[in-house]
Amino acid sequence: MFLLAAITGRYGEGESSDSALVERFLRKDVSAFEELYDRHSRVVYALVVRILQQGSTAEEVVQDVFLHLWRNAGQYQSSRGPFVPWLLTLARNRALDQLRLKSERQRRREDQAEEIPAIAQSPDYEKALDEKRRAERVRSLMGTLSPPQKKAIEMAYFEGLSQIAESLQEPLGTVKSWIRNGLLRLKEGLQTAS
User: Fold this and answer.
1) DSSP string over 108-133
2) Do 133 and 189 form a contact (C-beta atoms < 8 A)?
3) Most CB contacts within 10 A, which of 67, 125, 170, 172?
4) Distance of CA 185 to the CA centre of its chain
5) Is the distance from CB of 45 to CB of 59 less than 8 angstroms?
6) What is the CA radius of gyration of the chain?
7) Hey, how many other C-beta atoms are within 10 angstroms of the C-beta on 104?
8) One pLDDT digit (tens) per residue for the chain, 194 residues
9) Cα separation, 48 vs 166, whole angstroms
10) In whole angstroms, what is the distance from residue 171 CA to residue 87 CA?
11) CB 98 within 8 A of CB 52
């Protein structure tokens, strides 16, 4: 009911319609902007939180949407359609941008977890001994991983396969999680052994 009222702009008889508010807002009337915010921020928040599944991030996106709206008031054109669907489209796009940014950050963290830290130079015989000990430690740590993690890491790093999710008949995100979590356990195990 609230969403339908928000889209149609019918809240109460004493309040001005969205179109009149938008006209005032386009002339940079602060009180019109405040009224639009009061009228539509809950609907925008409900949409954004449904997409992001996080309240605090959704609040930030709602603020960003209304800040963008204030700074770029001229982008709305009433000839193209009603204000509320346009506002909800803007909010949806901002929420999806936030999801993409979050997944990009996660991918970068995964990439960094896969990088091996640089090792200080040591004489050849010490280097060979260190490599042998490290290999033994990796074999030992691989035995502590769950079977799916172990299989995914072996396929990715020891067999050089790239289509692991298809081979295991598992979703790509699941396989990536297995690899990431397994590598983190290996890294932690190697760090404690050092």
Assistant:
1) HHHHHHHSPPP-----HHHHHHHHHH
2) no
3) 170
4) 24
5) yes
6) 27
7) 10
8) 344 444 444 444 333 477 888 888 888 888 988 998 999 999 999 999 998 888 888 999 999 999 998 888 778 877 788 888 989 999 999 999 998 888 787 777 776 766 655 555 556 777 778 788 888 888 888 888 888 888 888 887 777 777 888 888 888 888 888 888 888 888 888 788 66
9) 33
10) 34
11) yes
Q: DSSP of 149-187, one letter per residue? A: HHHHHIIIIIS--S-HHHHHTS-HHHHHHHHHHHHHHHH
Sign of the four-CA dihedral 105, 108, 114, 120 = negative
Question: Tokens at residue 93, please?
Answer: 């796009």
pLDDT of 45 reads 95
Q: How far is CA 169 from CA 58, 165, 166, 175, 177, in A?
A: 34, 6, 5, 9, 15
Rounded distance, CA 151 to CA 133, Å?
A: 22
Q: pTM for this structure?
A: 0.48
